[in-house]
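=== Structure Prediction Worksheet ===
Name of assembly: unnamed complex
Input type: mixed (protein and possibly other molecules)
Chain count: two
Listed entries:
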Amino acid sequence: MPRALSVALLLLLPGAANANDFPTQTRVEFVLGCMNEQGGQSYDNLYKCVCLVDAIAEEMTHDEFEQAQVFSQLRSTAGERGGVFRDPDQARTLVAKLQGALERGKARCFVAPPKAP
Amino acid sequence: MTTKRFVLVLALLFPAFAGANEEIQQLTSDANNWATWGGNYAGTRYSSLSQIDKSNVGNLKVAWTFSTGVLRGHEGGPLVVGDTLYIHTPFPNKVYSINLADQTINWAYAPNQNVDTIPVMCCDTVNRGLAYGDGKIFLQQADTTLVALDAKTGQVAWTARNGEPSKGATNTNAPLIVKDKVITGISGGEYGVRGFVVAYDIKTGRQVWKAYSVGPDSDLLVDPRRTTQLGKPIGANSSLSTWQGEQWRLGGGTTWGWFTYDPTLNLIYYGSGNPGTWNPVVRPGDNRWSMTLFARDADTGMAKWVYQMTPHDEWDYDGVNENVLVDLQVGGRMHKALVHFDRNGFGYTLDRETGALLVAEKFDPAVNWATHVDMKTGRPQVVDRYSTHKNGEDTNTEDICPAALGSKDQQPAAFSPRTNLFYVPTNHVCMDYEPYEVEYVAGQPYVGAILTMFPAGQATKDGTTNLGNFIAWDASQGKIVWSNSEPFSVWSGALATAGDVVFYGTLEGYLKAVDATTGKELYRFKTPSGIIGNINTWTHNGKQYVGVLSGIGGWAGIGMAAGLEGATDGLGAVGAYRSLARHTQLGGVLTVFALP
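=== Predicted Assembly ===
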């Protein structure tokens, strides 16, 4: 019966929520970047940023996360080539999904807006 | 193979040539080096190294990294000659000489270039790399200065001014060394620059010949009776007669791609870019010789043959992509062939001796602007519905495939003689295109079109959203053998090796290794940033290495190489939604892989 229960739970949850498939390298890079934005490496910042990356990994697959990053970071690419990062529908939907995950995660993890450099 | 037979084979492959040719052929025939952009004059980007093979590539690890300290897109790849690696950067076009024994810097060259060059570079401030020859390293700076550096010391041996940046001329290409000459081109087709290829003396930097893409016959370096297109003489005024009035003066046909060379035929090969102004309505005619493949005598610049792939371009399908020189069986006969994957979506196989057209087939099934290429006339059969000229100014022509960035951009393909296949990084993107009226102002963009881009699956309605594919292509048949779907366009140059592994990079930053026969992924590693560079391979102390530049405009990743403690470094994986200014403090990184 416990087995049937877990199968039922799996069916209830959306697929992405179960993926939680961020590799170590992505989590480490994210946490280092996040701590950097929070003002430096400290346990305070470490706990917040670990919480945040885990929160995002619960909402998106790693493929979605990576693609959202590419679209948002390359949308300012100069010249005609930039259009390929601005125009496609999935550029908007994936970036919106990442933004939503970040906002919910930050509220949950006590992450403050970044300090000015 | 006995030594005697080996020498005989070598002698057949490499007849004696004077000067730098001999040196470069020796260097490139030794797979321990990577001495020219394509690995060899033929541009095959194939290495006979086989330590890293199908069975062990999955164990690759990062051996070392080197941060260039420069932002923006990093195209091209490292050169390796003996114990030294040479690497270049985007604007301001730094050059580093690195000792492979301990990865220390032998010397660095940092030109002082006017930052006014940056705004007139249409498509990011890239540079596609260096050339080596005659004990010098050659760099074609963005401000059009061609620099010869002493390979041992980095001291400037000579410089030559190749164009006028204030009028929109810039440079992004890698030069090619042929005999006693440095061959280079020019960028700026979006600014009304008239394209040319030029040869400078390797010792002095003096100009030896210069051949324009468009204009009067004397400028073109053509012989109206002997220069042919598909076997027929091109005749007098072949370019002028295809432009209205003086339009050819802003005619484009720039030459920012790759150069290859056949030492036996003594011909250099390259393609020209789009005609001036993207709005086709205001420049009736075929606009020759924009969008054209050229075969020119290396000594004189005289054109032996030309082939215009896209007469009267209406879509910005620059013809500058690389021309790979291989011997292929086509239609039951061996040909000295030239294979070219054009932005227009057709994969061309030509006889590189005669310029005869052998194969012209779509290398992306989505291509729709033309039904096919007429093999007699060489002309693409344009579909009216996708003709931005027929539909006219201020009309939005929808669902044209490919988009203006083409089915493939400059990132060079690779060829393996073991599989007889080409490995091609491609775009899978379509567009809506609306031309509008535009006036020419020197140094201002001369484009005259608005475009919107989207995944090809949106136009073909097959439900896919991938923006790229990495394909294997049979150039004898003109057929795709396998195709790997990629979420993004593939903008890195490929590498094929005797280990039957093919390498390429992705915009997410992955270096990928796939099986040359099947395309099956064998390895991936995420580098600090998106990859638009070329993957090259070499040995040091008998061990095989594979190296690639990562780095692309606005990218927020960072690597250990750049120092994780740097307070303002843009370690911004979290910053996807924030202003880019906060995230642009990183440099590009050369990542070098080896087996443990």
